[in-house]
Amino acid sequence: MSTLSLARWLFALTAGTHFLFVALTLGLATLVAIMQTRAVFGESAVHLRMVRFWGQLYVINYAVGIVTGLLMEFQFGLNWPGLTDHARDVFGAPLAMETLVAFFIESTFLGLWIFGWDRLNRYAHLALIWVVTLTAYLSAYFILVANGFLKNPVGYLRVGGELRVDSAGALFTNPAALLPLGHITAGAFLTAGFFMTGVSAWHLRRSGETEFYRRSLRIGLISVVAAIVPAVVFGGVQFPYVHDSAGVPFMTEFGAEAMMFAWLWMFVVAVMALVKLPFTGWLLRGRIFLRVVMMTLPVPYVAMLAGWIYREAGRQPWLIYGVLRTEDAVRPIGHGAMIAVFTGVTALFAVLVVVNIALLRRYARQGPDGSALGRPEPAVRPEPVPSF
User: How far apart are CA 222 and CA 6, in angstroms?
Assistant: First the structure.
């Protein structure tokens, strides 16, 4: 395999893996914020327990996802210097805004939310999770602006051998960025919705916490029902910006077929949920339905990854469509060095994925009473004062 192929496969593996973390993070953050809103204004104890339980799983996924994102972005400078040399202003500007404006705000307020339980006013604490959620979407938007420029270069002019920003308005309102944002938002709700339903169904088949997981299951199913049609609509309107691949047509065909099969499966489950949602008793007695939603938990991940492959593979052989070829952007390093980088980074990402799955599985199985998020600190008894 050539150096160029190794560099492309490495970025595909790391970007695709990170994208799966993002999907759950976006959707679960929103659902946690909605549950905390219900807990605060409705003074609902069960919703507060749900915030602690699902919030802890969100924090785990977010923390591991940060590491994958940082490693992925290192590749822009290490493996693809041609991209930063030719388009550092146009491509680098939204990435810098994502880091400085969105990521730091999101991580700072998330830290305040995690450690602010029982220390902050409940309304202030609620505001924190909504800031975290909104900045998460802002972060996704800036990333899509950079990615959209690669697919549909707009708002730039060429000065010598470099691309400079000519119209910030055109760059930040690029349809190749705005339309995917709607698609990813719907996909994030599907991912988080099926994650909640899958975990809740597992507990409903084994646990006596019926009220807690019944409510969680309903929230997850409502999320799925609300997002299933917008997901395919926002996906369809992007077709004008999906290019026919001259280099890897089998990848786009695979992505399209896997994506449509996964969406059809999720659509059938959503229809089943629409029938069952009004009849809570039937829902809880539907052992087959609970098994189906448990089996469906990984399907939105398949759909998101297949959609990403379909969207990105078609741009080849261009890195910036019609402007910069992929082969002209890769770093001309030795083949052995690229093999070493590919092997090391791939192994590290595999470890991170395994760690994330293990942690999510461990804390999901423990249930709400095993959540450490928001748990009151044990009272510390003062040491007795010795008498003399």
Answer: 42
DSSP sequence for 33-60: HHHHHHHHHHT-HHHHHHHHHHHHHHHH
Closest by CA to 231, choosing from 190, 284, 178, 261, is: 190
Identify residue 325 by its one-letter amino acid code: R
pLDDT band for 277, please (50, 70, 90 cuts): low
CA separation for the pair 227, 350 (Å, rounded):
30
* CA atoms of 35 and 219, how far apart (whole Å): 9
Alpha carbon distance 154, 34 (integer Å): 37
Task: Work out the widest C-alpha separation in the chain, in whole angstroms.
Answer: 89
Would you say 263 and 232 are in contact if contact means Cβ atoms under 8 Å apart?
Answer: yes
Domain boundaries, the chain: 3-20+59-369
Question: Is it the case that residue 225 has pLDDT exceeding 50?
Answer: yes
Q: Which residues pair with 162 in a beta bridge?
A: 159
- Write out pLDDT tens, residues 300-338: 998 888 888 888 877 778 888 888 888 888 877 777 888
Radius of gyration of the chain (CA): 23
Distance CA 175, CA 193 (A): 27
Helix (H) or strand (E) holding 164: strand 162-165
Helices (H), 118-209: 122-151, 168-172, 175-204
